[in-house]
Amino acid sequence: MKLAEETDRLLEFARASVHPDGGFAWLDDDGRPELERPVELWITCRMTHVFALAHLMGRPYAAELVDHGIAALAGRFRDPAHGGWYAAVGPDGPVTRTKTAYEHAFVVLAASSAAIAGRPGGEDLLAEALHVLDTRFWDEDAGMVVEEWDESWTTLDAYRGVNANMHTVEALLAVGDVARAERIVTRVVHGFARSHDWRIPEHFDAEWRPVPDYHRDEPAHPFRPYGATVGHWFEWSRLTLALRAALGDAAPAWMLDDAVALFDAGVREGWAVDGAAGFVYTVDWDSTPVVRQRMHWVATEAIAAAATLAQVSGDRVYEICAEQWWGYAERYLVDREHGSWHHELDPANRPASGTWVGKPDVYHAIQATLVPRLPVWPAFARALSSPA
Question: Which pLDDT does position 349 carry in this prediction?
Fold first, then answer.
């Protein structure tokens, strides 16, 4: 696959996501914005980030799209009374008033990329987003972020989640905060993952004790599925390697070993384990597949982790893995007729919509096309802004 061409093909698809009321809309299978749906904060942030990367790559249309995202984050999504951002908004305002770390991590990422891209309002948005992260979500004692507050920041939910912490690491690396990123990675990767045979527990109580049966009755949940999520092992592997590169000589030796172990576990327990090509979505605590649907983002993160390990180690085996998975993506996931990638396939690799309807955003796929062409560190926007 020609990665530069795929980047531009994905960006062309994404341009249709502009919502006339502010933010970026959910796109259907054909790339039409679903304007009747609430506008999601995570989608608006991801698209703002992606268009900031496009601007840094010199795409002439991208600046206006970044500014559209900044305007929505500074206006439509922002809670002017209590601070922070609403997770989803409709024509009459917020449709949910809880405030969650997952979405707020993406506000930091979007604001960081917009600021690096030099867009007006980016620096102010980033300062505010980091203030909310610091004062509302960061738990200094735990070295992790908490998950969910009510609107006025008075009641903290007891649930703790690793997914939100993973994207917080991504955001912290984007702004160069390696100290807190290291605290999270050390606890999750060198602690939770290593002590659970690399099947990372995703769900915890307020004391950071695993809740292994969480969502057993809703195993295919898009953000909090039951069991261990294979794609996250690859994502943690890549982020650990990025942090290792950022730390340089100060990086502990375990980071490379653990990143390789997570990658190996993802291949061993995720790839074609039911006899068909593709990665299963989740596995049980004994490695039995639970949700066998193939999610596009899992393949993209596997590709990105393989490309990163290839850079770090020089081992040809990782290049072979990436080549194989790009071939799989081209055959089953890339939609040449209607654009973008199918977000979900059934176990026989046919388009499906049990968890994901339509093609909401291009964040994972875009980043997969960029990882092989950029250094392991710094993060995407900073790397694109630096002279070659």
Answer: 98
